[in-house]
Amino acid sequence: MYEHLETAENPTTLKRVVVDPVSRVEGHGKVTLLLDENNKVQQARLHIVEFRGFEKFIQGRPYWELPVLVQRLCGICPVSHHLAAAKAIDQLVGVDPENLTPAADKLRRLLHFGQVLQSHALHFFHLSSPDLLFGFESEISKRSIIAVLANYPEIGLQGVKLRKYGQEVIRMVSGKRIHGTGAIAGGMNKALSKEERDYLLQDIEQIITWSAAAVALIKKVHTSNLPYYDDFATIRSNYLGLTKTNGALELYHGGIRAKNDRGETLVDHFDYCNYTDLIHEEVRSWSYMKFPYLTSIGKDQGWYRVGPLARVNICDFIDTPMAEAARVEFKQHSGEAMVHSTLAFHWARMIEVLHCAESIKTLLHDPDIMSNDLMATGEKRYEGIGVIEAPRGTLLHHYQVDENDIVTKANLIVSTTNNNMGMNESVRQVAAEYLSGQELTEPLLNNLEVAIRAYDPCLSCATHAVGKMPLQLELIAADGQMVDKLVRHSDGRFEH
Amino acid sequence: MSGTINIDGQNIPFEEGQTIIEAATAAGVYIPHLCHQPGYTPHGSCKVCTVNVNGRNCSACTFPAVEGQTIVNNSAELEQDRRRMTQMLFVEGNHFCPSCEKTGNCQLQGVAYHLNMLDNHFPHFFANREMDASHPDILIDHNRCIFCNLCVRASREKDGKNVFGISGRGINKRLIINSDSGQLKDSDIDVNDCAAHICPTGAILIKRTGYQVPIGKRIYDHHDISEVALMEEREHGK
Lengths: 496, 238
Known about the structure:
The complex is a heterodimer of chains A (about 500) and B (about 240).
Chain A: E1 15-19, E2 29-35, E3 41-48, H1 54-57, H2 66-70, H3 78-92, H4 102-134, H5 145-151, H6 153-174, E4 183-184, E5 187-188, H7 194-223, H8 228-231, E6 238-243, E7 255-259, E8 265-270, H9 275-278, E9 279-282, E10 291-294, E11 304-305, H10 308-314, H11 321-334, H12 344-364, E12 383-390, E13 393-401, E14 407-413, H13 415-418, H14 420-435, H15 442-454, E15 471-476, E16 482-488, E17 494-495
Parallel strand pairs in A: 6-11
Antiparallel strand pairs in A: 1-2, 2-3, 4-5, 6-7, 7-8, 9-10, 12-13, 13-14, 15-16, 16-17
Helix pairs in contact in A: 3-4, 4-6, 4-12, 5-6, 6-7, 7-11, 7-12, 10-12, 11-12, 14-15
Chain B: E1 2-7, E2 10-15, H1 20-26, E3 50-53, E4 56-59, E5 70-72, H2 76-92, H3 107-114, E6 131-132, E7 138-141, H4 150-158, E8 164-167, E9 174-177, E10 204-206, H5 225-237
Parallel strand pairs in B: 1-5
Antiparallel strand pairs in B: 1-2, 3-4, 3-5, 6-7, 7-10, 8-9
C-alpha cells in the first residue's frame, strides 16, 4: 500500500503544498504534500484540524439531554447522533433494542431512513456530482451544485428534491428538519399522525423512481469510465459494519460484521456492547482524529473502512427488491468478492438511497407508526452503548452515569474516524499515482479532494435557528457595504 | 376604590390594591416580565417589566396603580432597556438553548424572542456554576438560574416550607438550599411542591421528563409569550 508516504525522512528539505480547506465536505480538514526537487511526492497526509471536545463537556450533564445535546455535533447527520445516543440511554433505563415497542422501533427506523436518504442525496448531488459530471479537473466555476443545475437541471433538481423529501421525513417524526427531538430514553415522544403519514406517502413513488434513476446515473458514470474509476484512489482494505441477524444490510440495529479484502469473514454478529474487545484507537501526533483498528489483527493491518461501500460489500443481501437488484449488479461489476474502488462509494451510496426510499414506503404503510404505544421501561443501569450505521458508517456512543443520573464518562467513535486510515491511504494513492512528478495545478489538486470526498467525511457540525427566534440576514458586498437586509421578527413578520 | 390609568394612550380601569402589571394584564395589555407571577408576592428583581410612569421608570410588578397615572409601556427606548436587561441575564449564566430541555417552554427564551433579542450584546461571564443532581426526582442546574426568587416564594408561600434562599450579592449571588449539607436531597422539598415546578427557566427541573413534549406541542412553539402570558394570567385573575 502507500504507508511509506505517511512520514518523509527529511521533511525540512522538501517543498510543502497545502490544500486548505478541503472543500465540499462537512467540516474542516486539510491535505499536506511534501515534494522533492523533482516534484515527487514524499509525504501525503489528511489532517483533521478541528477539535470538538464533546466527550468532555457532556460529562456532568444529565443523561436524558444526550440525544439532543450530542446531535449538535453535526448539522448534516444529527439524527444519527440523536439515535446512537438514544440507543445508549435506552440501556440506562433498562431497555434493550429488542424491548422497544414496535411503534418506537419503527418510528426511529423511519427517522433514520429519512436521515440517510437526505444525507446521501446531499453528498452525491450537492457535493460530488460536479466532479462526476464535469470531470475531476474541470474549471473551478463548474465545481458546484449551481453549475449542475445550470447544465443538468433535471439531475440537479432531482437531487435537491430527494434531499428535501428526506428532510421532510425527519421533520414529520422529530418536529424539525435539523436538530429536532423525537427519541427519548425508552422510546419516542410522538407517533406520526394520519395527516403526517399521508403527507409523506403522496410523494414516495416519485422518490423511489428518482432514487432508481440516481443508481442508474452513477452506474453509468462509473462503468463508462473504466478502468479509471476502479483504479482512482483505490485501496484494498478490511470492511466493517452492522448487519441483520440474517446477514441483510442494516442501518439501525444489528451485530458487527467485518470482512477482509478477500471477502473472508473476520468477525460476525459481534455484540457491539463489547466493542472494546474488538477495536482499539491509535493516536498520531499530526491529526486530531484517531486511527481505529481491529485489535485481533493489529494497528498495521487491522484498519478498516466503513460506510456505504463497506455495508454493501459485507452484507449478504438487501431486503428491498430494487436495491437488492442494484447490489447484485454492483458486486458483479468488479469480478471480486469485495469492491475496493473508492469511487464505488458513490455507487453504493445511491444503492442505499434506493433502499431507504423503498423502506420508507414499507414503513409508511405500517400502522404501527401511528400507534401511541411509544415507551418501554426497565431497571436503571449505569452504562449504555449505542451503535448505529450513520450515513458515513458505523457510529458508536458509549456513556457511563452515576447514581444521580449524571454522565461521568463518554466515548464517541464517529463514522469518519473509522475511515481515517482509508482516507489517508486514498490520498497517498492519488498523490503517488496521479500527482507525483507533475507540476501541481489547482485542478490537479482537486483530485485529492475527489478522493476524500468519495468517503463523504463529516469533520464537523453546523448550527441552526429554532422556532420563533428573531433573525436578521445581511448581505454585505466585498467592500463592506450592506447591499440588502431581511429581518424575521419573533411574531413571524418579515421586513425587507 | 377603583380608577383609571392610561397605558400608551389607552384608558385602563384598576381596582384598589392592584399593581400596574395586574391592571394591565386584566385589560389585555402585556408588559414583559420574568420574576412576576400572579398569586405570588411581587419581587421586582428582574426589572424586565420596567415602564415609565409620569416620566419616571418603575417596575410595573411592584408599583401600585394610582388614579391619573400616564404610563408608557411600548416605546423603542423601553424595549431597548428590556432587551439589554434580558441580555444581561443570558450572559450572567450559561444558557444553551439548543440542548436545554426547557427550550420551547422557557419564559426567558420566550421573553428574549418577544424582545427581538438577536445576540447577547455583552461578553459572556462563563460563570462556573454547578449542578445539584442529588435529589432522586429534582435537578437544579444553577447555570440557568436568573435569581427571580420564584422558587423561594413558592416554597415559602405555597408549600409552607423554606427550601430555597438567595445568598450573596452581585456576581456572588447564588441560589442556596436550606439543608445541613446544602444539597437538595437533604432538604424537605417534594417533587409535587410548587417550588419544584415554578422555575421560569431550566434551572429547576423534574428529572427524566425532558423532551417528552414533542416540538410543535410546546408552550411557545406557536404563540408568542405575550399571548400565552395574557391568556394564563388573565385566567388566574378571574
